[in-house]
Amino acid sequence: MSRPLDDGRPWIASFALMALLALGAVGDPERWQQLDDDGWKALKEGRYAVAEKLLRTALQESESFGPDNPRRARTLEHLAWLAYRQGKYAKGMEPARQALAIREKAIGAESREVSQSLSTLAILQAAQGQYREAEPLFRRSLEVGEKVLGKEHPDVA
């Protein structure tokens, strides 16, 4: 006779969680946050090699949160901006697309984060002279931003 899953032994769930943590299957949000923040700071300071190392490590850390986790999208967005700041616009396209897809799926198509991702992708395309592709992204970013934040919000301006 088989026993039900909940047979009064909560230690099984605790043991499973400890095993996952020990194997690195569950990420450390604080470690990811620190890596991502430090990488973004290094990017803003123009220390691109340091920024790339920190952001790539943050991206690896974010893998344990799942493929559609907003943390992953944030780090991908930062990597896209790193590529932009280095003038490597084509290199920034894929992380920008991934960030947008994750945010649309995880947060919803009408969110501040999606508006930001649309703008990032549009800026990268415009920087490459792909104005026809960039324009609808800029328009959609503006529409979402106005809807979510309001027309008078500084981020919409």
Summarize the structure.
The chain is mainly α and 157 residues long.
Keywords:
mainly alpha, Serine Threonine Protein Phosphatase 5, Tetratricopeptide repeat, 72% helix, disordered N terminus
Describe this structure in words.
By secondary structure, the chain is mainly alpha-helical. It has one domain (27-149): Tetratricopeptide repeat domain (Serine Threonine Protein Phosphatase 5, Tetratricopeptide repeat, Alpha Horseshoe). The protein is 72% helix and 0% strand. The chain has seven helices and no strands. It has helices at residues 11-23, 29-44, 48-62, 70-85, 89-106, 112-127, 131-149. Helix 4 (70-85) runs parallel beside helix 6. It is globular, with a radius of gyration of 19 Å. The termini are far apart.
Q: How are the SSEs placed, and which strands pair?
A:
Blueprint: H1 11-23, H2 29-44, H3 48-62, H4 70-85, H5 89-106, H6 112-127, H7 131-149
Helix pairs in contact: 2-3, 2-4, 3-4, 4-5, 4-6, 5-6, 6-7
- What is the radius of gyration? 19 Å
**What is the β-strand count?**
0
For the termini, the CA-CA separation is 67 Å
Number of spatially distinct domains? 1
Quickly count the helices.
7
- Provide the CATH topology: Serine Threonine Protein Phosphatase 5, Tetratricopeptide repeat
Largest sheet: none
Order of helices and strands: HHHHHHH
Whole-number mean pLDDT:
88
Provide the helix percentage: over 70%
- The stretches of 5 or more residues where confidence is low (pLDDT under 50) are 1-6, 11-25
- Sheet/helix structural class: mainly alpha
Regarding CATH, which class? Mainly Alpha
Q: What general outline do the C-alpha atoms trace?
A: globular
* Strand portion: under 5%
Q: What's the CATH H-level superfamily name? A: Tetratricopeptide repeat domain
Per CATH, the architecture is: Alpha Horseshoe
